Amino acid sequence: MADPEETRARETTPGDDASTSHAAPPPEGASPDSLQNTPSNIARLEDAIENCAARRKYLARTKSPSDGEDVRWYFCKLPLADRVLSASVPQTDIVGKGDYFRFSMRDCLALEASFLEREESLLGYWWREYAECSEGPAGSLVKTDMPDSEYLYKVEEERVGVPVKGGLYEVDLMRRHCFPVYWNGENRRVLRGHWFARTGGLDWIPLREDVSEQLELAYNCQVWHRRKFQPSGLFAARVDVQGSTPGLHAFFTGEDDTWEAWLVFDTGPKLGSNTIKIRRGFSSSGAANPTQDELRQQKEEETDDYCSQVPVGHLVFMVHGIGQRLEKANLVDDVVDFRRITANLADRYLTPYQRSTQRVLFIPCQWRKSLKLGGERTVEKITLDGVKGLRVALGATVHDVLYYMSPIYCQHIIDSVSSQLNQLYMKFLKRNPGYNGKVSLYGHSLGSVLTYDILCHQETLSAPFPTDYFKMEVPSDEDQVGKAPNTTAVHDSGVKEHDTSSTSGHSSADNVNDVDEDNNRIDGSLTDKIASPRVSENVPNHDDTLASPIAVDGVQNEVGNQDENHQMTCTEEGDTSAISTKDAESVSRSEEILDKDKSISSLEEEVRCLKAKLAELERHNDLSESIRNVESHQVSLASGKLNIGQSSTSQSYRPHIRYTKLNFKVDTFFAAGSPVGVFLSLRNVRIGVGRGQDYWQDKNIVEEMPCCRQMFNIFHPFDPVAYRVEPLVCEDYVNKRPVLIPYHRGGKRIHVGVQEFTEDVAARSQAIARQFKSLKVKAVAAFLSMGKHDAEEDGESTKEEERSYGSMMMERLTGSPDGRVDHVLQEKTFQHPYLSALGSHTNYWRDHDTALFIIKHLYRDIPEEPPTDATGRPPIRLFYVRDPIAEDTPLTFSDNSSVKEFSRKVKTYSRKMEDDANCEAS
Fold it and tell me: Is 674 annotated as catalytic?
C-alpha cells in the first residue's frame, strides 16, 4: 500500500466515464504507524475488525455448513512481469493448487483490517483494473492508451505498505502487490480469498476476487429462495457469473438457513466433472495425514506469527563477497536459507523465554548488484574466446578482488557498501521508530574485508590507499640523507626516484615542467653560492646531482657537453647506482682542482642557455603557471640537504580512500571464510591501537582497530580463502589452535575428538619433559634467592610481564580477558580436503554449526529463565506454544523438546519447593 501522504492514486468505478476518471481523488488510508505489525497493533486490529461496520456484512448470516466468515490472504509463488496488472493474474477463475501461499493468521488480520478501512476505494480501483484487462464483445483485449489509465501501471519507488512475514515484505493493497522491503525484488500478486472451491481434493482453494464479489452479491440476496427446476433436473437457483471462462455460472440450492452451492464450467444438460463444490469462508482440510506442502505451509505460518508477536532485538546486516555477478548466485536466497536454519535451531536450543524476549532479523546487503564499474566493459573487450565459461566465472568472482585492490575502483566499492548499510538501517528505523536494540555485521569472503576496512576507519573517515603502506621505508632514506650528505649513492637514488616519478606515464609537457624545475634549482643554488662568502665542500657534489640528464630534445646533449668541459660526472638513471667508491673519490679530487670562479661563470652561462630554451618552449606550451609553482621548490646548498625527493613525493599521486560514517554502532562483527588476515599481512598492518611498534619490533608497522565490541573469525579448515587473524593481534596465539565450534547435534565429531586427544597427549608429554629438564635450573634459582621478599617481588614482576601488549589488544577486540577471535568448524568424517575445498567456502550460508554459533552469541545476554524479581515487561506468551502444565508427562523420551521442557519444569518446581521450605523455616 502506498503512503497516503505521498500517493495520489486515481480510481474509478466500472460505470464512471473516462473523462471523470482522469482526476479522481486520492484514497484515504491508515497512517504507516498504525500498520505496524506489532503485538499492540495486532490486538487493536482484532478489535477493529470485530467492531468495524464493513466487517458486519461479511459475517455469516446462515447456519449452513457452507457458510463461514474467515477471510484468508494469499500471495503468488511466481512474480509479476513488468507492466502487468494484478487483475490479469491468475487467468483462471480458480487459483491453481500450489501456485499461491497463504499468509499467516496474524498477517491476514492485519491485511483484512487495512482492507476494511478502505474497502470502497480499494474495490473501485480493483474493478478499474479488471475493466482494463477485460475482453470486449468481439473477443479482442481492450488496450487503452489514454492518460487516465496510465496510473494503473505506475509503481512508486518508496512506498509503504502493510508489513507481513516479519517485516521483510509489505503489501500494497491498492495494486495487490507483495514486495520486499530491504532489497530490490519482483512484485508478487496478492489475492483476497473469501469464496473457496474444492477441486477433487480436501483443500479449499480461493476464487478470484471478481468471481467472489459476484457470488457474495448472490449470497446477500439469498438467491436459493428463488430456486426452480433446471434443465439438468436440479431444483436450484442459477446465477450467471462473468469470468474468464465462457458460460460460467453457479447453482444455489437449499432451504432457509441451509444452502449449498456449485460452480459450473459447462452448459451441458447434466452436472458433470466440471461442477465444483464452493463455500463461503475459509475452512481447513482436516486431513489426518497432511502432505509435505501442508506441513511446510503450517511451519511457515507459525514462523510468521512468531515474528509478528516478538519485537526485533538484534539486527544483522549480511554483506556478501565475490561471485554475486554469477547467474545462479543470489544473496537473498542465501540469507533466506540462513534465516530458515537459524529459526529451526532456535526452536530446539533456545528456551521459550529467550524466544519470546527478542528475535533476530537478518537483512542482506547487496552492494555489488547495483554497482557498475567502468573497467568491466574494457575487460570484456579484451577477454579471449577460449574456455569462455571459465573466463566468465573468473571475471565474476576473482575480478572483484582486483577491482578492490585498484586505487581507481576501491573508492566506488567502499561507497557502495557504506551507502547500502546506511540505507538499510534508515529503512528499518522508518518502520521501527524508537529502536534501541543492537546491530551486528556479518561479512563473507571479500565482504568481510570491506566491512573490516569500514569499521577500522569510523573515526578518521580517511586513509591512504592500502598499497601505500609499502612505501613506509621512504622516511628512512631521508634520514640517511640528513646523516650522510656526502654519500653519492643517496643523492643518486634521490635523482632516480625523481626522474622515475616525473617521467612515467606523463606527456611531453610534464617533461618540460621537470626541465624547468631542475633549471630553477640550479639557478637558486648559484644565487646562494654567489651571495654566500662560504661555500662548503659538498657544493660540487650537489652540482653533480643537479646536472642530471634532462628529457628534452636537444637540451640533453648540450648539458652533457658542458659537463665534460667542467669535468663533472653525469650518468643516466640506469648507471647511477653503478658508481663505485673509487669513482667518487676521483671526482672529488678533480673538482678540488677546478677554479671556483670559472665554474660559477660556466654554470651561469649554462643557466642562460637553458632559460632561453625554456622561454622558447614557454611561448609554445604556456608553461608560466607551472614554472611559478616549481620555483617554490629550490635547493638550499648552504644547509647541505636536497629537497628533490620531497618535491617529487609531493607531486606524485597518493590516493586516499574516504569512508562514510555509519549511522549505527556495531556490536559484533562476524567474518566467515574471511581473507582479512592475508590482506592485513600484505599491507604490513596489525590489529592494535598504534602503540605496538616495540611489541612487534618493527617501526613501520601500521596498527588499526575495528570499531565494534567483539569480532569473530569463523572458517572451515579446508577453506582455501580463509586465514587466521589472532597471530596479527598477539604473537602468543601463533601456536595456539583455534577454538573448535561445537557440532550442532552435540559435542565433537568422533574423528575430531580422537585427533584432539592424541594431540593433547603429545603436547602434555612434551610439557612434562620440559618441566623435568628445567627442574634443576629452578632448584638452583631457588637456592640463590636472597629472601622471601625478593622472591615475591620477582613473582609480581613476572606476572606483570606476562600481561603483554598483544594480550591487551586481544581483550579489547574480544571484550573478555579469555576471549578468542579464530573459531574453526569441524570437518565431516568422510570429507576429502581438496574435493571439498570450494564447497567449504560457499557453504557458510547453509552450515548448521555456524548458524547455531551465531544464534547462541546473539542471545548470550538473555537468561534462559525469567528472573524471579523481574518488574519489567513480561515475556510474550506465544499462542502456539504448548502449555506443559496442561499436558501429561510424556511416557517416552523420544521427543527432545518434551524432555527439555520436562527437565526445566522439574527444576523450576524443585527450586520453588526449596524457597517455600526456607521461608517456612525462617
Answer: no
